[in-house]
Write a structure and sequence with these properties.
It contains 8 helices and 7 strands. The chain is an alpha/beta fold and about 220 residues long. A 7-stranded mixed β-sheet has the order 3-2-1-4-6-5-7, with helices on both faces.
Length: about 220
């Protein structure tokens, strides 16, 4: 089975090189591709220096639309999605890739440990968790985790992805609702955390709005 790791990135010059090198160290991964979403820093250079192909989207499209522009053209049996800011902890992607390759799951999601920095009140995470449970009956430990392995069949069913920060919630709801086997795998992965400052609160505000939009859309579709 051909495994392609895709690394969506925006302004991740500090982390993306380590993320890429860590993914390249996983023997089951056949190809690593970085999708840069119009970064203004050295994200592209850092990724290329690590030895992988980079596709640049410009202007900034947001994660979902950036993935939607590139993924339909890729050849893969299993898609591994790993955010550009996980750095060396990307080596743990093998843990949630394993059940998909073994035929034990169709979509596997990395569950994160509690954050070291308490950036907010957990409202966006709570909304995602409650919304997914209400729509599917599934309780998710890390509903917003962007670290995922999925089969081509799942990808065909859940794409195109939602725009903005709604990618993960939409994907999970659609996969579970379609009867796919969705599992969470505990990891020690970590990523760049937003702090309790203005930028952090603005980020979480946009995240909350996108999640609410995605959940409302699926709730309305279910009622029709």
């Amino acid at each position: 089975m051909k495994v392609v790791a895709v690394v969506p990135s925006y302004e991740e010059e500090q982390y993306v090189g380590e993320t890429v090198r860590s993914l390249l160290s996983i023997k089951e991964v056949d190809e690593v591709l970085v999708i840069d979403d119009g970064s203004t820093d050295r994200t592209v250079d850092s990724a290329q220096d690590a030895g992988v192909r980079v596709v640049v989207n410009s202007p900034n499209l947001g994660k979902g639309n950036s993935l939607n522009r590139v993924l339909p053209r890729l050849d893969f049996d299993v898609l591994l999605l790993v955010d550009g800011d996980v750095g060396r902890s990307a080596t743990e992607a093998g843990a949630f890739l394993e059940p998909v390759l073994a035929g034990e799951a169709d979509l596997a999601i990395a569950a994160f440990q509690p954050p070291k920095v308490k950036g907010g009140l957990g409202i966006a995470q709570g909304l995602a968790r409650c919304g997914i449970e209400r729509l599917t009956g599934r309780k998710m430990a890390s509903p917003l985790s962007g670290q995922r392995a999925l089969t081509r069949e799942v990808y065909s069913k859940v794409s195109p992805f939602e725009s903005g920060f709604g990618v993960e919630v939409g994907m999970t709801v659609d996969a579970v609702s379609s009867g796919f086997r969705v599992v969470e795998v505990e990891t020690n992965m970590s990523h760049k955390e937003t702090g309790p400052d203005f930028h952090g609160f603005m980020h979480r505000g946009r995240q909350f709005a996108d999640i609410l939009r995605v959940l409302a859309k699926r709730s309305l579709n279910r009622g029709r």
